[in-house]
Each structure stands twice: as structure tokens, then as C-alpha cells.
Amino acid sequence: MNKQLLLAALWLSPLGLYAHKATDSEATTLKSNAPVQRVIRSIDEDKTRQRFTLSGYVKDRNGEPLINATIYDLTTRQGTMTNAYGHFSLTLGEGRHEIRCSYVGYKTLVETIELTANQNHDIILQNEAQLDEVVVTTDLNSPLLKTQTGKISLSPKDIKTEYALLSSPDVIKTLQRTSGVSDGMELASGLYVHGGNGDENLFLLDGTPLYHTNHTLGLFSSFNADVVKNVDFYKSGFPARYGGRLSSVIDVRTADGDLYNTHGSYRIGLLDGAFHIEGPIRKGKTSYNFGLRRSWLDLLTRPAFAIMNSKSDNEDKLSMSYFFHDLNFKLTNIFNERSRMSLSIYSGEDRLDAKDEWRSNNSSGYNDIDIYENRFHWGNFNAALDWNYQFSPKLFANFTAVYTHNRSTVSSSDEWRFTRPGEKEQLTLTSHGYRSSIDDLGYRAAFDFRPNPRHHIRFGHDYTYHRFQPQTTSRFDSYQGEGMAKTDTIASHSHNKNVAHQLTFYAEDEMMLNEKWSLNGGVNADVFHISGKTFSTLSPRLAMKFQPNDRLSFKASYTLMSQFVHKIANSFLDLPTDYWVPTTARLHPMRSWQVAAGAYMKPNKHWLLSLEAYYKRSSHILQYSSWVGLEPPAANWDYFVMEGEGRSYGVELDADYNISNLNLHGSYTLSWAEKKFDDFYDGWYYDKFDNRHKFTFTGRWNITKKIAAFAAWTFRTGNRMTIPTQYIGLPNVPDQSAEALNFTWNSDGGLNFAYEKPNNIILPAYHRLDIGFDFRHTTKKGNERIWNLSFYNAYCHLNSMWVRVKIDDKKQMKIKNMAFIPVIPSFSYTFKF
């Protein structure tokens, strides 16, 4: 037994692996229009010869590694896929092999390899810019062939469509069109997957967790589409290498940068602008990738308010400024064919400042000045240092050092100066401040071992040091007299500091049992230590695939997930007053289990159909007691939350149709999402985003080589909300518990609203059409100009946001529907150089 196999056996012995019978589903064997038995026979014949390993990277012509590219041996009918770093390993018998490499959007390449020893060989693919049509004959990342349920991979072309809300392409809004996903409030970048909450999604940016994932209260997401290379989205069937959240994983990888040529782009949109540049520092060895996105509204609002205030005779002066920015930087160095290192940095920030100044002066000697200011600052800083090393042709490793810093700051102040005839001048200062920060520091070791084409073994461990620091301050100061002597001070401070240590181990094996069966089995183990208490969880994972022929497969999966951090919020918007907190000694880690199953069919080269069903149960989920206020208390926050349960289930149907210049996709979701909090309501009730039916249809049409169009139509059952079912008159009874009677208390003994059940009505059905057009022009110097015109809610259907309940003069209860968002046109100009 060689050293690498011994290492893998030590890590994976609890799984009971038997290396001579398993295979990698990413090494799924496939031959169009040929019996699968012939494929297995070819493998068995190949095993009689001496075996060697072909390994390397799949790249585009600029040296950018390609994720999920398919490498397939036409001789033995064996294949594999590249990992998250573009690396592949395929063990074959000695002799000549026809190797075919394919990737969506790139020309398929076939090379003849003479294998007489272990060989490192990089494969270079030509992108679609030089091709009229791209046909991928075998894609092992297709839902038909991969083992996992509920996995979707997005390329930059999927994200940067011809349509973009307010001219900014968006990763999360692209995922919102996915079956099984609710988008929450209109315009917001919410993501509610299989009935889960927004904090149950694990967002990873180059392997580092991202806590603030949105800008402008959810209008834009924090991912700059110019630097994104690949997005893997899991909504069920989670592999063992992922953990820490209950509902989904969004693994975003940024591009390394062009190793041979310098090029970039800039874009000017309706609310923001972006600049991107990449190129070599040492050709073929060292590259950089830099992207900057910034809103520019503050450049207009600041002088606009200044001019308005200077010309206004009004005593009330108002000023406001808001901006956000994203900065991505990646530096990659290739030491040799076995070793490379990269440094990835992300910085994102939002700032909203508002000031209201009111002055009152009169001839009687009264002089009042009231200055009210609000400042909201929030953002992230993420850094990851990656080292990839190939220990042998079969063993690939990645070591990562990780640091993340998340911050939210809210401060307000009210300065009131007043002078009255015959009295001393007085000054009162009222201030309030809130700050929350998270610091994560840790490392990750991940190993990728492929002993033969029937096994793909992954194992590793992570360690993270968490520090959570929420704090609030309030202060009142009073001054009087010419020297403004302090006469009174009232101050309160609340702070909390929690330090936690988290250790994670995982192991998984993706294997092929025989010509029809494959599986991915693994386990994720967590140890979480905080405040002298240690929590440990074991989360097994299993996914299986049965493929009776080349055009049909059936899959099923079971996953158990754990979550040790929670987002405490009092609204469905992404506010800086929300903050993340860890599991404490008073609470339990959140847990969920999910089963999913589906059928997948490709009747011909143009169509791909899938049907998936899921059932999910969650326990110890948290809900903030909103009666405490908009801003949760920093100290003893765990006394103001409720623990409950959740359950969701549904069916998802997806259909894809593709020809050379037209791509169509349709999906339908039938789902139920329910919650149960005994402290809140006795029994199960529907979640706010329990959207029973959801239809999505999207289409991309390359009308000519210069004009392309995109359209997306969405229809779903409306969100739910709670309204009173009746109103009753109550006497003014001391110590009467309004919570126990489930109605709103009115101390005057007048009319009171009574509520039968949470989320007891459904808002009108939601539907809208988004369309966009790209107009391309290539200059004489070879640069490309793109004019984009997009329309959100193209036919201007005003969708309900909430309803208002009132009692009219006749004591009748009236409900008024509130809808505001009309058609929103957007325009942008992009120049590529």
C-alpha cells in the first residue's frame, strides 16, 4: 500500500471503503448510444494492464483554470471532472488513449495521449468567442449524470445576462429564479431555500464565509459579477465537505486572472459603476485580477442637497448621502506544475448618513436649534491565502488560511440648543450608538484523493476562532449657561463578547458500485466550544444514483445539517441593526435533516427534464421576540429569542431546451413551509414566504451576432401576513395578559384587534416580466462596446407589498392593498479593452 493510499485509509476507515468496487460519480462512465455493460467491460480490460495516472489542470487560453470541466477517455469510456481549482486526475491502463475535454461554452478538444508513466498534462480549451456554435457531448456536471440532488452550477454567462436590475448583474437574483427558492420581499436579494430562513444559507467567497451579503438594504448583492468564475449552489444532497448552515450552500469562486494578456472593462450603470482589470505580472507564472464596483448616487445627492438648502427659505435643512463599494483582488503565483498559491481579498462597505437641521429665530428673543443626525455603516473584509499542492498524481491538497471581519455600526445624535428671554442658554445632547462585529480566524486543510477512476475521496478538517462583539451605548447630557457647564448626565452601556472555537472534520467518497449504481457517502463532524460548554454533532450524508441507460437516471439523498451561528433580525430587509450571534449555553445548535429524490431524463440533445421532491425538518430554530424593539439588546440577547421547529416539503419540475442561438428554461415549484414556536402560537402555522405555487420561464435569444435578448417571467402565490380577524371591546381589567388572550391590549377599554393565527392571509398572486437587450459593437482596434437596456416589471404590474387594516366611521374593518413598484428601466454602457 503506497503512502497516499495509507493516508486516505487512516482518514476514511470509519466509512468502510472497499477500493476495488467503488468509483467516482465525477468519473461516471458514459458513451452515447452504447450499452453500459460495454463500458464496464472496457474498464475491466483496462485493469489487466499496468496503470498510470494522467493529471493536470484544464484552462482556457488565458491560463484561467476551469471548474467542473469534463475529461473523458474515449478508449476505455472513463471520465472525471476538474475540482474547484481546475485540477483533474484520471488513472488509466498503459497505452494510447483518446482524451476528450469539454466545458460548457468552450470548444470540445480531443487529444491522443501515449501513457507509459504517470504524466502531468495541462489541457487548454478555446472559448466561445471564436466559435459559431458550441455543442457539449458529455457534461459530467449535468443533473443527469452527477450523484448529488439539488446542485446547480452557474458560469459567468448565466449571471451576466442581457437583463440586469438597475444595470448591475446579480448572483443572488439569478438564484432567485431557481425552483425551490423564495425571493422574499420585492426588489430585495433575499434567498429562502426549502422553507429556511435567510440566515440558513452558507455564502462562501473563495472559501471564506460572507456574513453581509447585500447592499442597499438588499437591492444589490455583494458579489461583483465581473470577477466571479463559478457558483455552485446546493439546496439538497449536501456533500460532507460543506457544513455550518441548514438550508443551502452558495460556493462562489473568483477568477485567478489572465496569465498572458492584460485586459479589462469598465461599466457605467444607472446607480453604480464598475472597473475590472486582469493580467500577468510574470507571463505564465503570476497573475492578478482586480475588480471595483461603487455606487455614485452620493456624488449627485451631496451637491444637490447643498444647492437645495442654500436656495430654500425653509427653516428645515436636510442632507443625505449613501454609497456602497465592493473591492475584489486576487493574486496567483504558479511555482511549478505541482504547486501554486493565491491570495484573495474582498472588501465591501455601505454608508448612509442623514442630517436634519431645524432653526427657529424670532424677534421675541426665542432661539431654538435642533440638529438630528443618523449614521449607518456596515460591511465585510475577507482574506484567504490558498496553497495548492499535488503530492502525487492521485493526491491533491489545498491549505487555506482564512480571516473575515464583519461590522455594523449605527449611531444617532440629537443636539438641541434653546434660548428664551431672561434665561440662560441651554443645550441637551442625546446620543445612541450600536456596534456589532464578528472576527473569524482559522485554517482549512482539504485533500482530494483519486486512487482509481471508480473512487473520488475527499477528506479534511477546519478550525475557526470566532469572536462576536455586539455593544450598545446611550447617553443624555444637559448643559446650561454661557460657559455651558454640565448639569446632568445619564448614560447606559450594554456589551457582550463571546469567543468560540469550532473544529470540523469531514470525509466523503464518491464511487461507482457497478454499471448502474453510484453513491456519495460521507460524514461531517463538528465540535463547538463556547463559555465553558462544548457541543458536538455528527452529520452523515448519503446520495445515490441509479442510471438504467444513458438518457435516464434516478437519485435520492439524505443529509443532516448543524448550525451554530444565528442572525437576530426584526425585519426581512438586510439592516445594519441585524447581527450574528453564536449558540450559547442556554440554547441548542440548530439542526435539520432533509431527504430528496428525483428523476432526470434527456430524451434528445436539445431537452433536459428533471423532477425532484424533498421533505425537510428543522429543530431549535430561533425567532427574535420583536416586541423588544427594532434593535436587539447586546447583552443577554439569548433571553429574547424563541426556539421552535420548522418543516417544509415540495416538488420541483425543471425543463431546459437548447439550440444554437436559443436557450429556454422553465420551472414549477409546489411547496409548503410551516413553523412552530410554542411561546408564540400553540400549533403549526404557515411561514411568511410559504409560496404554494411558483412558475419561472426564462429565455435567451442571440438574434444576431450583435444583438441578444433575455426575458424572465415569474409567477408565484403571494406572501403571507397576519391581519386581525375581528375586533372586540374589552374592559379595562388590571393585570390582564394580552399575550395569553392573543389580542392587542388597549388600556382605554375600547375596540381591540383579535388575531386568530399568524400569517393567516395570502396576499394577491405575484407576477412580473423582466426583459433586457445587449447591443454589441466591435471597434477597429478590437475593443468591444456593449449598450444594455433593461426593464424590470416590464408590463408594470403593481404587486402587493403589504395590506393596511383600518376601522371606518361605521365601525367596519377595511383592508387596503399596498403596492408601489412600477416598471423600472435601466441603462448601462460597458467598454472592454
Q: What fold name stands as the CATH topology of the largest domain?
A: Maltoporin, Chain A
Global outline: globular
Helix content: under 10%
Radius of gyration: 29 Å
CA(first)-CA(last) distance? 53 Å
Number of helices: 6
Overall average residue pLDDT: 86
- What number of domains? 2
Structural class designation: mainly beta
> CATH top level of the largest domain?
Mainly Beta
Please identify which CATH superfamily of the largest domain we are dealing with: TonB-dependent receptor, beta-barrel domain
Signal peptide: 1-19
GO molecular function, one term: siderophore uptake transmembrane transporter activity
Subcellular location: Cell outer membrane
Domain TonB-dependent receptor-like beta-barrel: 359-789
Features:
833 residues; single chain; 2 domains; Maltoporin, Chain A; mainly beta; transport; Beta-barrel_TonB; Outer membrane receptor proteins, mostly Fe transport; 6% helix
